[in-house]
Structure formats: structure tokens, C-alpha cells
Amino acid sequence: MRKITSRFTLVALLLTLFCMTGCVNVKKLQQIRILDAKLESVSPESLRQYVVTGSVTVANPAAEVSVSEISGVLEHNGKVIGSIAVDPVTLTAKSEQTYTLRADAKVADGIGIFELAKYMDKAVLKQCVVDLKADVRVRNGKVRTVELEDIPLNKLLELIR
Known about the structure:
Blueprint: H1 2-23, E1 33-44, E2 49-60, E3 65-76, E4 79-86, E5 89-91, E6 95-107, H2 113-118, H3 122-125, E7 128-138, E8 144-152, H4 153-159
Antiparallel strand pairs: 1-2, 2-6, 3-4, 3-5, 3-7, 4-6, 7-8
Helix pairs in contact: 1-4
């Protein structure tokens, strides 16, 4: 669970940032890069809920970008395995900065500990998909909702390796 949860959290932010380029037609936004991502801690609140903390170093040559309402769902063969909600983050304009992110991860109802263990297998992870949603605002502009569905988890994990 720790590996899936930690990567899922970092992937949620990573994909949201990459997808902003489709929301706003500004060349500088295409140059935003995640330079480093680290899992800091995973703290269980219960058997089904975890608080995940990580750090992400972002190079932002563009304007200030706010990302909020970041959420995601992890699925395998149409069955929801878990969900995550990441706290909002604002990327400082024209900077290279490390941001600490906090997320609440939850294992879906009906997923037992033994079933969860099977999702740690690399072959099974390749069959998992992620749905992501986030609100993105550039400077003081209009908030745009980014929604991405059925993204192969293994493709997202490759982005942060």
C-alpha cells in the first residue's frame, strides 16, 4: 500500500501540472518541470486511511499557478481500489522551489488487506488506471477544471522515475 499510495500522490500533482499546458495556451507553462519528487512520510490514520506527505521540486519559468481540488481514483478492471485528495499548492512565478504536499489517501470499501497485497505485483499494476481531477488557475485568471480519465498507472509512474 505504501508504494502505491506514495506514487499515486506524486503522480496526481505531476499529471496535473503537465496537463495545465492544455488548459492555457501559454508557451512558458509548457516549460514547467518537476525536477524531483520524494516521499517524506506515510502515516496511517486507520486501516483504510493514510496521510501522505511528500516534497516536489518544481521549475516554474511561467506566471504563478494555483492548483486546487486535486483528487484521484485508482481502478483495476473497473473496480475502485482507492482514492486520494491532495492539498492545494501554488507555484511561485519564475522560480525553482521545493513544495511540501500533504494528501489524504483512502483504500476503497470492500478492498481487504490480502486483496490489497495483490495490487503490489508489477503485472497487476500495469492493468491499473487512474482518473484525476484538479482546478488550475494561472495568475488571477479563470479557474479551469482538468479531468483525465483511464490513464494507465504504469505510464504515470514512468514520469517520476
